[in-house]
Design brief:
The structure holds 2 protein chains of 2 kinds. By secondary structure, chain A is an alpha+beta fold. Chain A has helices at 58-70, 96-113, and strands spanning 27-29, 35-39, 49-52, 54-56, 118-127, 132-141, 147-156, 159-162. Chain A has 2 helices and 8 strands. Chain B is an alpha+beta fold.
Chain lengths: 163, 636
């Protein structure tokens, strides 16, 4: 039996995405939906061009991460597996062990649903005094020259909030 | 050979057919819109966005755009679901909602049947206080059986022949009681428009439609344009379009909302109401299934007159003056009783029933010509009385039922008690134009003795026959005949013995249960007994049944824990005889030695035979479930 060494294995997540005509790599709708001016002409309104507001690159990826953290599995109509059920840990002891499990859950979710990012730092700190967890995420995007951004939020008995 | 066309000829040619584009601007089949579901639509949107290369994050489940796409795709999916549902509900074969099938069958003139209240046959006696003479019991009179009201739907004239207490046969043979009390609908004042429609809106306190008996709605009209206005009873007809311009007729139909619509004519087909005419409607408000009563509950009940100021006027206007109407004082001297229970209440026709009956009714066009027309008519209109019905012509009757008696050795088959009874009661001496209707009443009876008297009584037969007269062929005479009941029990053929009905006393059904069976022996015996009792229930449509031993066997084997079935007879001399499978003995209990058969394979009964299980309630005692030990199986 011989092995054909010429067969390449293609990983979609590792392919270099094409760059859009406006120079950005990723683009997503901005919510709430707003207009933006592509051409703004204060005097002659007929020349103005408006379009829907779009988030680009890090902004687009940030949308995905925030949505992932704020969505419960089952909430997304056509993909019931999408989301993280972080609220379930609020009934666990507010300690380091639970914080560790929360961290694992977040890491697993990001790896599954957001292949564009690399986790540089994931810190979950239990705050027993307020029975909450302080979550800090620093992420970098290899396809955007490792540009990084930070998301910080609090998981408390009233839900998960991005700071 | 080459041909040439002139310019004019070329101009006259049809334009060349343009090839039709089968795809729209989005590269989708033009008729493919209904093929999408949410996921395929989401995939389509994502693919198109990818092709445009303006926005990218549709590919990432977490993006805002992905959420928007999900919502759009799912909304479309839901809309398509309703589109398909609506499409399906628009056709006769696929509609599943009552409202829709009701409206669809209106196109072919079918009128769905509403609720049918319980009907009660009764016996009546008049005591000596009623002098001999001809009397008429006024319509809508009622009796109360332990609080359950039953009413008469028409004037019934009968004769009291003697000065003694006597059975009022004319009354009891020609009338039945309908469960419920007659109710007066508020008087409707006509607008005088063509095809004027009056919708009966009768609801209870919760807004639900009150149960109105379908066949006992009466309509009276008072023409206020004449100098001396009088109430006149108008007649219901199948279709106004067959009526004359002065015909006092109306159509009545149960509409899609479960309410009755009464439609009057337009002076071309059926008389039109004049402006200011008054319309009075009377109907029976039924108690539904709660109004059913058992035997003897009517015993000793007295009849009460129905009376309202409006009805008294209507009665005075519509009753011939020569009728001797019974008064409240005279009614005290009439006693009612009931040997039979009331028939079961029948709810409004369901969707499947409408689908079946509409096509057969359309085929017959509300005329009774073929034997299947008769069967459909009776099963459709009297399903609260009749459980099973077969109709044959005179030739088939002679070749079948009469020949059967002749073969039994009855030298004058026409003198056989049930045949004679029906012949005398319901027909004349000319028989060649007879149609014979075999009908089994819808009564649940389980013991041998009562099954043999399980016949429609005279008043029920008369009720059906009266209804047939309007639609059957003019030359036809219908007779409702009684079926030949065949008693079925377990029994086997024993060598050197002639078949005898008593074999059933010694025969058992032996079921061998698997040693690893999940169900215990008693449960299996109960289940098997249920199969037999259900198969031979007297409420089944079993006239002329294909008695299928295979079906019975398969139903038993479906339990899965049974390894063998045997029919075993242990005679009084101690000998044991067994045959594999189910073996039945079937005989006519009136001629038990002349018509008796052992049945061990499927058999088609003739149209006049109705099988019933002997002593069905105790049939479980004839089932023996045995469980072999593991050791015995190993040894074997």
């Amino acid at each position: 039996m011989s092995i054909n060494n010429n067969v390449a294995i293609v990983l979609k997540s590792l392919t270099k995405p094409s760059v859009l005509s406006n120079g950005f790599t990723y683009s997503d709708l901005h919510l709430d939906i707003q207009y933006q001016y592509l051409v703004n002409h204060e005097v002659q309104r007929q020349y103005e061009i408006t379009d829907i507001l779009v988030d680009y690159d890090l902004g687009a990826i940030r949308n995905s991460i925030v949505n992932l953290l704020l969505t419960f599995p089952g909430q997304k109509i056509l993909n019931p597996f999408f989301g993280l059920n972080l609220a379930q840990y609020l009934f666990q002891p507010c300690d380091e062990d639970t914080a560790f499990i929360i961290g694992q859950e977040i890491q697993k979710g990001i790896t599954t649903f957001e292949p564009r990012v690399k986790i540089n730092l994931l810190k979950v700190i239990a705050q027993p005094a307020t029975h909450s967890f302080q979550i800090t995420l620093i992420l970098s995007v290899p396809t955007l020259n490792s540009s990084s951004f930070q998301i910080a939020g609090t998981l408390s008995n009233s839900g998960f909030y991005i700071n | 050979m080459a041909t040439s066309l002139t310019t004019a000829a070329i101009a006259a040619l049809p334009p060349p057919q343009q090839p039709q584009n089968q795809f729209n601007d989005f590269n989708l089949p033009v008729d493919g819109y209904a093929a999408f579901d949410a996921l395929s639509l989401k995939s389509l949107i994502v693919n198109r966005l990818n092709a445009n290369n303006i926005i990218t994050d549709q590919n990432y489940e977490g993006s805002n755009l992905s959420s928007i796409i999900d919502i759009i795709a799912y909304s479309y999916h839901v809309l398509l679901f309703y589109l398909n549902r609506t499409g399906a509900e628009a056709t006769f074969t696929t509609a599943e909602l009552y409202d829709n099938i009701n409206k669809i069958v209106k196109l072919i003139g079918y009128r769905p049947i509403g609720a049918q209240t319980s009907i009660l046959p009764f016996q009546a006696t008049g005591n000596s206080a009623i002098r001999p003479g001809l009397y008429t019991l006024p319509r809508y009179s009622y009796v109360s059986a332990n609080g359950t009201v039953y009413s008469f739907n028409a004037d019934i004239t009968f004769t009291k022949r003697t000065t003694n207490t006597e059975e009022l046969t004319d009354l009891q043979d020609n009338a039945v009681l309908y469960q419920g009390r007659y109710t007066e609908y508020p008087v409707y004042t006509a607008a005088g428009s063509p095809f004027e429609l009056l919708t009966l809106t009768v609801v209870d306190s919760s807004g639900k439609n009150t149960i109105i008996d379908h066949f006992t709605i009466d309509v009276y009209v008072k023409n206020n344009t004449v100098t001396t206005p009088k109430w006149v009873k108008w007649s219901p007809v199948q279709s106004l379009f067959l009526e004359r311009s002065n015909s006092t007729a109306y159509e009545i139909r149960l509409n899609e909302n479960g309410r009755y619509e009464i439609k009057f004519g337009n002076n071309i087909t059926g008389q039109q109401l004049n402006p200011g005419d008054q319309v009075a409607v009377y109907y029976i408000t039924s108690d539904g299934a709660a109004g059913q009563i058992g035997t003897n509950l009517l015993n000793g009940s007295k009849i009460f007159l129905y009376s309202t100021p409006q009805f008294n006027t209507i009665q005075a206007n519509t009753t011939p003056s020569n009728l001797n109407l019974l008064t409240a004082t005279q009614l005290v001297n009439i006693n009612l009783s009931n040997n039979d229970p009331s028939t079961p209440f029948k709810d409004i026709e369901n969707v499947e029933s409408i689908r079946t009956n509409a096509s057969s009714t359309f085929q017959s066009q509300y005329r009774l010509v073929t034997t299947s027309d008769y069967e459909n008519f009776i099963v459709g209109n009297y399903s609260n009385i009749v459980a099973s019905c077969r109709v044959v012509n005179n030739w088939d009757y002679i070749q079948g039922h009469l020949k059967y008696y002749f073969d039994l050795g009855v030298t004058s088959p026409n003198n056989e008690s049930r045949v004679l009874f029906n012949q005398v009661k319901f027909t004349d001496s000319t028989n060649f134009n007879n149609i014979y209707i075999y009908a089994v009443p819808k009564l649940q009876r389980t013991t041998t003795l009562t099954s043999r008297i399980n016949y429609l009584n005279a008043s029920q037969k008369q009720l059906i026959l009266n209804d047939l007269v309007d639609t059957q062929l003019a030359t036809t005479e219908s007779i409702i005949n009684d079926p030949v009941y065949m008693q079925v029990d377990l029994g086997i053929n024993i060598p050197n013995y002639s078949v005898d009905p008593s074999i059933s006393q010694y025969t058992k059904l032996v079921i061998t249960r698997s040693p690893t069976a999940k169900q215990n022996a008693n449960t299996i015996a109960l289940l098997v007994a249920n199969i037999f009792t259900k198969y031979f229930a007297t409420t089944n449509d079993n006239l002329g049944l294909l008695l299928s031993i295979n079906t019975l066997t398969n139903q038993i084997l479906q339990f899965g824990d049974i390894t063998n079935i045997q029919t075993v007879a242990q005679l009084s001399d101690g000998t044991v005889h067994a045959v594999p499978g189910i073996s039945l003995v079937m005989f006519n209990p009136i001629y038990p030695y002349n018509d008796i058969n052992i049945i061990s394979q499927d058999i088609q009964l003739p149209y006049f035979k109705f099988p019933y299980l002997n002593n069905a309630s105790n049939f479980i005692n004839k089932i023996s479930v045995v469980t072999p030990t593991i050791q015995s199986l190993v040894t074997a």
